[in-house]
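check this one:
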Amino acid sequence: VQTCALPISAIRTIFANMALTAIAVLLRILSNPLANVFQKQLTERSEPPLKVNFITFLLLSAVCIVPATRIEWAALPKEFWVWCTVAGIFGATGNGFLVKALQGGDLSVLGPINSYKSVVGMIAGILLLGEIPGLWGVAGIALIVGGSYFVLDTLNEKFSPAILRRKDIRYRIWAMVLTAVEAVFIKKVILYASATTAFITWCWFGALFSLALALLAGRSQSPLRIRRKDFSRYVWLVLCIGTMQYTTNYVFDRMNVGYALALFQLSTIVSILLGYKIFREQAIGRKLLGAVIMIVESVLIIFSK
């Protein structure tokens, strides 16, 4: 009788990969809301949102110069560059809308709205990547609507169409949609190359298109000038954004986009707590209840795997 037992080395490799993926998901969950804190603080200190967006991409691009020398760029197909360009346009625009939303909105509200990103990402994954969600995945996504009710109901407009009149909500929705579609394009880039290569091109193309957005906005303030009092916040922002995007690519390389985006929504509870502790935002109890429902959604996504 033949056995199909895996060798010890293969089992260790499997568990090591699972552990690394779990660590990447955890870092992604923590780094994203922390980056939002620094983005919000900079805009509250009169830094234009599109300038914050551009400088973030620019500093990340500088960090990527050394690792980029180890990549054989000439060997990459033309389709790779097409997807990089499209991802860069969606990413720069989406992040610009995000920073603009944070300028005038509450972190504890705008963070949970991002939970709808997994829905957009799953739909885009079905259309562009052929990633079909399971029954548990669909059931988990459905809970997002229920959880968001408790969060959005804390606003004056309540959970109603009137909420779309708020500029911060509209900016956050645009950011959510654009970055959710961007995630699918990033997955395309990863399939042609690697998570590291996709990260480098994300930074470079993001810097290019975010500069274009800043120039089109016609701001009189130089997009390259960093005030001394803001320097440390930019450093922390770059560290958080870099960690967020690299771990995002790492996880995308190992699971479906829709499922990964759903897991990332665990950062919702971190956003709510940071909004309360740092910016003294109110109605935290109802927002946390909504976040718990969204966490249940993430658990269902995990079971669907």
Observations:
- The mean pLDDT is 83.
- Residues 47 and 230 are 9 Å apart (CA to CA).
- Residues 8-44 form the longest helix (37 residues).
- The chain is about 75% helix and 0% strand.
